[in-house]
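Note on ligand handling. Small-molecule inputs were canonicalized before submission; formal charges were left as drawn, and no protonation-state enumeration was performed. Where a ligand contained multiple stereocentres, the stereochemistry in the source SMILES was retained. For adenosine-5'-triphosphate, this procedure yielded the string shown in the input block below.
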Amino acid sequence: MNKLNNFPILPNDENTIGIIGGGQLGKMIALSASRAGYKTHLYCPKGDNPAETVVDEVTNGEWDDYDNLVEFSNKVICATSEFENIPSKSLELLSNKTNVVPSSLVFRCAQIRSKEKEIASKSGFKTPLWFLIKNTDDLISSINKISNEAILKTNSLGYDGKGQLKIDATSNFFEVWENLGSVECVLEEKLQFKKEISLMYFKSLDGSEGFFPISENYHENGILKKTTAPVNLNTNVEIDIKTKTKKLAQSLDFYGVLAIEFFELFDGSIVFNEIAPRPHNSFHWTLDGCNTSQFDILVRTICGLPVKDVKSNGKWEMTNLIGNEVKNYNLYKDQNYILNIYGKKNVKTGRKMGHYNKNIS
Ligand SMILES: Nc1ncnc2c1ncn2[C@@H]1O[C@H](COP(=O)(O)OP(=O)(O)OP(=O)(O)O)[C@@H](O)[C@H]1O
Ligand SMILES: [Mg+2]
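Structure output:
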């Protein structure tokens, strides 16, 4: 589709935004789109999909249900995906029918850890020492090149720390390999870091671009638990990672919102971890901490409306409610906790059920 002929997309009865993926990100994109006056149409497999309750129309279909995907694409003026692991063939099919932002090329890169590390290096970022592992022989020969503890991660389909295991020279390599499903992996050194931070860049189809203030992240058991923002970085370091991020985005001809996760080491240097070409959990604080949230900005970028740097209104903390934590009624008694409950029917251990934002200025 020719992006340039189609923007700006203004809200009217005919302009429906397609949202691919029915999780909490899809729900929050739909709420922003709806507030901005757009109709929304969701595509997702049947299931416990919180986004279904807030959109104008739903198509339930599997990720490789090409007939349903085509029908969906015929009804939308543009589409964006909250689901990072959408098969690239499906995204390419959709791209032939409607404006898909970000593009299938971007998703292909973000889906494969080795690819995202390569593109990060080309853009000037440092990455942890890493090796592509195709079998146990690769694993045995590479582990000796990493002096510290290492992490073996499946090369694709990982999220919330799933699909990764710690490993060192004394591990049973065959067992670790099998436990990860005997699939292509990356082996990377486990870094000792001072902080985990994330950056969000965005670019509209009209060519304008910007950043959100930087977030600091705290993980528990591989899952994001808490984010505080804005975090203060050394000015030169901030300029440097923003310049490299723009270079990375340019190399992918990127439009939409792009989150990048980094480690800050004790010597102050910044090391790339991974990218996510979609709204990111570590920027949920922007829903209450900024005049324009990451979801509002995504809608603006895919509709070709102008965007610029977003500032925060004070200092914010976002806490995820994981599993049964959503049932902690003490949280509901204090109006300073700005609760956002996703409405998932099944409460499961390790499942993100909601979050709250709190002003800590
Ligand atoms: N090389 C590393 N050194 C130290 N810690 C790491 C490394 N890789 C990952 N971690 C820790 O594990 C967390 C999850 O890893 P990563 O971001 O690679 O996985 P993920 O499953 O794709 O995560 P998510 O989708 O939740 O962002 C990181 O945020 C970090 O806390
Ligand atoms: Mg991550």
